[in-house]
Amino acid sequence: MGISMFLAGGFSRLAQDNPDKAAGYGAAGAAFTFVFTFGFGATWLTIPWLYPAEIFPLQVRAKGNAWGVVGWSIGNGWT
Asked: pTM to 2 decimals?
């Protein structure tokens, strides 16, 4: 994921430095942003949605899942 963000930033910088090729570099930067989002969604993003739903008993599963998402949101605010 770090490599895809590095490449997205690099292509964005190249688009600023080379206005004649900005469309191509911009498309490459956007593509690597989507690659990052896919990788994040497939790995780190599944934990706050799936794990709390599996560890809490059925009677409190909805509230437990809600608190898991609250914890994830607070953690996202710190980063």
From this structure: 0.64
